[in-house]
Amino acid sequence: MAVSPTADRTPAPSFEDNVNAYFDRAARFCRHDPGLLEQIRTCNSVYAFSFPVRLGDGKIEVIQAWRAEHSHHKLPTKGGIRYSAQSDESEVKALAALMTYKCALVDVPFGGAKGAIRIDPSRYTVEQLERITRRYTHEIDRKQFIGPGIDVPAPDYGTGEREMSWIADTYGQLHTGELQALACVTGKPITEGGIQGRREATGRGLMYALSEACRSADDMRTLGLSVGLEGKRIVVQGLGNVGYHAAKFCREHGAVLVGLAEREGAIFNPKGLNEAEVVEFRKRTGSILGLPGATDILRSADALELDCDVLLPAALENVLTGENAPRIKAKVILEGANGPTTPDADEVFRERGLLVIPDVYANAGGVTVSYFEWLKNLSHVRLGRMDRRREAAADMRLLSAIEMATGRKFSERERQSLVTVTDEAAIVNSGLEDTMIVAYQEIRDGLRRQPEAGDLRTAAFVTAITRS
Ligand code: NAD
């Protein structure tokens, strides 16, 4: 009998399988009861639903959507909403699980959740997207999968402030008079209850994560790199919210952006690119290809194999696989996207001694600042508003005391630069920086205590499991 060549081919592990494989690897280093481990690993609830929308030509389209709450151990649950034609239930569950571990790592007291609508947003008008988003919000509200103390969505791939404002508005209409209604979603525009710095938070957090990793003289020596961010050559995949801001902040802190990859192809310039110029050029021409001074790479994925120090995948999952891992030239993989590295690739990177700064920690800046936004909404006061004058007055008193003690008068300019004017952005950014530094050191310390764990990802999962 003829056997089809594909008949006995086992399907590639899914993203969900990969997250569970990382969990299981770390669980070997934990002393938890197996039943408890199973409870931590299991997704608690998933709401899968479809709804019809009438499009411009009068035709009805049925749209599939999900909201998964991975852990109710801490409430509310928290996690982004993704608009992608590739989304499915398994992907949403994988992303929700990562959120649980991520929140535990950065000490944000939420359980993990995630949502998705299976659409390619570029195929819809703004008005249609608004209708889809509002309908989605109605559906998850009906089943109690949204609420300031229940489950709090945020932006993810394919969504941003605009979608979050539609969600907040719909929820507000359904819950008239509910004092905390604005805290039902984060990542909102500033004028609608958002917080300064949330848009940039994931990218900024990635820069803090990389800076912290590059501060270790021992780790940099092992990798054959110099200490510090200065001069590090970076390649970024995905010029969306995460990739754009990570590129911007790393470049502003001395790194050189040598490569950028988007859907249509990639560009390379060893002298350095500027992400804002690339975005502007792409807006004008419809492509990043053809940027003056840069070399075009027609197959976008080839950019992952460019000569660089740091590779920053910031698009989608499963882009670094057992197939391309041996050819990756970067010494550091900074995971901006969720799940960019498969366990096969991870194994290769471990054997080759690369430093992988894992998604579960590296891209936690977004949820950290979402937590600040949620707190701001619940307290009904802008961060810094209550104590700004008091802090400035205290600084003034200190300066006067120094003047009296030393006999030296500060100039007006010196006074102004020494007095702290704590605005919301400064408070958010300093809270974010502190969170990323503390979490990195906790993971690094975990690896020092258990070197047999072998890498930062496993150490991060061990820390997360211990706290979940
Ligand atoms: P986004 O939609 O703003 O941007 C994604 C970008 O990737 C787009 O520009 C898209 O064109 C590009 N892209 C898609 N496929 C590509 C490919 N094959 N090659 C190159 N580029 C490609 O999404 P985002 O919010 O930046 O999210 C990106 C990743 O970061 C996702 O994995 C998401 O889960 C993760 N993440 C996002 C946040 C957040 O705050 N937005 C927080 C944590 C993690």
The number of distinct β-strands equals 12
* Percent in strands: 5-15%
Low-confidence stretches: 1-7
Q: Shape from CA axes? A: globular
Distance between the termini: 52 Å
Q: Please tell me how large the radius of gyration is.
A: 23 Å
Specify the structural class.
Answer: alpha/beta
Write structural notes for this entry:
This protein has helices at residues 15-27, 34-41, 89-105, 126-142, 161-174, 201-214, 217-223, 241-252, 275-285, 343-352, 359-362, 365-379, 388-406, 412-418, 424-449, 456-467; strands at residues 45-54, 60-69, 77-83, 111-117, 151-155, 233-237, 256-262, 265-268, 295-297, 310-313, 332-334, 355-357. By secondary structure, the protein is an alpha/beta fold. A seven-stranded mixed sheet has the order 9-8-7-6-10-11-12, with helices on both faces. It starts with 14 loop residues before the first helix and ends with a helix. The chain binds nicotinamide-adenine-dinucleotide. Nicotinamide-adenine-dinucleotide (NAD) binds at residues 155-158, 202, 237-243, 261-263, 300, 314-316, 336-338, 363, 366.
List the SSEs and their pairings.
Elements: H1 15-27, H2 34-41, E1 45-54, E2 60-69, E3 77-83, H3 89-105, E4 111-117, H4 126-142, E5 151-155, H5 161-174, H6 201-214, H7 217-223, E6 233-237, H8 241-252, E7 256-262, E8 265-268, H9 275-285, E9 295-297, E10 310-313, E11 332-334, H10 343-352, E12 355-357, H11 359-362, H12 365-379, H13 388-406, H14 412-418, H15 424-449, H16 456-467
Parallel strand pairs: 3-4, 3-5, 6-7, 6-10, 10-11, 11-12
Antiparallel strand pairs: 1-2, 2-4, 7-8, 8-9
Bound molecules: nicotinamide-adenine-dinucleotide (NAD).
